[in-house]
Amino acid sequence: MAQTSSDRNPGVLSMGPEAQILVVEDDVRMQKILYRLFRESGYSVSVCGDGQSGLDTFRATRPAAVVLDLMLPNIFGRDLCRMLKSERPETPVVIVSAIGEVADKVLLLELGADDYVTKPFSPRELMARVQAAMRRMQKTPKVATYSFGDCEVDFSKMSAKRNGVPITLTAHEFKLLRYFIANPERVLSREELLNEVWGYNSYPTTRTVDNKLLKLRQKLEPDAAEPRYLRTVHGAGYKFVP
C-alpha cells in the first residue's frame, strides 16, 4: 500500500504497467480506499491530493479514467473536470462526492463528467460505473473532425462552426453529437442514449435526452422546428441523417 504524508497530501502515487486510474482526492482515508479498490482489480493507480497535482499528472500520463472529488485544494473539482475534458475529452471522468442533489449532477455532466457516484458509496458500484464509462468511450469511434450541411465540428479541439461562425457546444453536447455521428441513419432510443452517452443512472428521466436534442437542434439545424439532421422517429427515438 502506498503511503501518504498528511491528511491533505498534494503528492502523487504511481505504480505498475497496467491501465492507469487517476484518483484526485484530498482525504487520506478515501485515498486508501480508492487505491486499494482499483489495485485489487488489476489497475495501476495514481493518487493526487489536490487539483493542481491532479492536472499535472493528467497531462503527464494517459490514464484510462479519472476518479475526481469535488472539494479539492488549489483547483476546485468542477473547474478541474472542465479542464480535463477540454484537453482530453476521450478520457472518462467519474465524480465521487458527498454532494448528491440532482442539480449538481446535471451541472457536472454538462461540464463533461461521465458519471457521478455519491458518498457513501458501494465499492462494487463505483467500480462498475468506472468500467462502464471506459467501455462507452472504447465503443464510440474516435471521429476527429466531421462536416454536415453548413456545420463543421472538430472533436479533438472541442470546437464547432456553422456557416463559418463559431458556435458554443457544451462538453456533453459534443459527446452526444459524436455518438450520433458514429451511428448515422440508425434509430437510437432514449434508453440507449442514456446508457451509452450519459450512463443510465446519471439523470432521473428520459426527458433529459429530449431537452438536449432540442438544444443541439437550436445550435446546428437551419430550422430547429423542422430538423433536417437530428430527426425524431416517433415512438422509437432519434436518428442522425448526414
TrEMBL record:
One Pfam family per UniProt: Trans_reg_C
Residues where 4-aspartylphosphate is found: D69
DNA-binding positions: 143-242
BP GO terms, sorted: regulation of DNA-templated transcription
InterPro entries documented for this protein: CheY-like_superfamily (IPR011006), OmpR/PhoB-type_DNA-bd (IPR001867), Sig_transdc_resp-reg_C-effctor (IPR016032), Sig_transdc_resp-reg_receiver (IPR001789), WalR-like (IPR039420), WH-like_DNA-bd_sf (IPR036388)
Molecular functions per Gene Ontology: phosphorelay response regulator activity; transcription cis-regulatory region binding
Presence of keyword Phosphoprotein: yes
Listed GO CC annotations: cytosol; protein-DNA complex
UniProt keyword annotation of DNA-binding present: yes
Keywords, sorted A to Z: DNA-binding, Phosphoprotein, Transcription, Transcription regulation, Two-component regulatory system
Ranges for domain OmpR/PhoB-type: 143-242
Domain Response regulatory, chain residue ranges per copy: 20-134
Function: This protein is a positive regulator for the phosphate regulon. Transcription of this operon is positively regulated by PhoB and PhoR when phosphate is limited.
Protein name according to UniProt: Phosphate regulon transcriptional regulatory protein PhoB
Organism: Terriglobus roseus
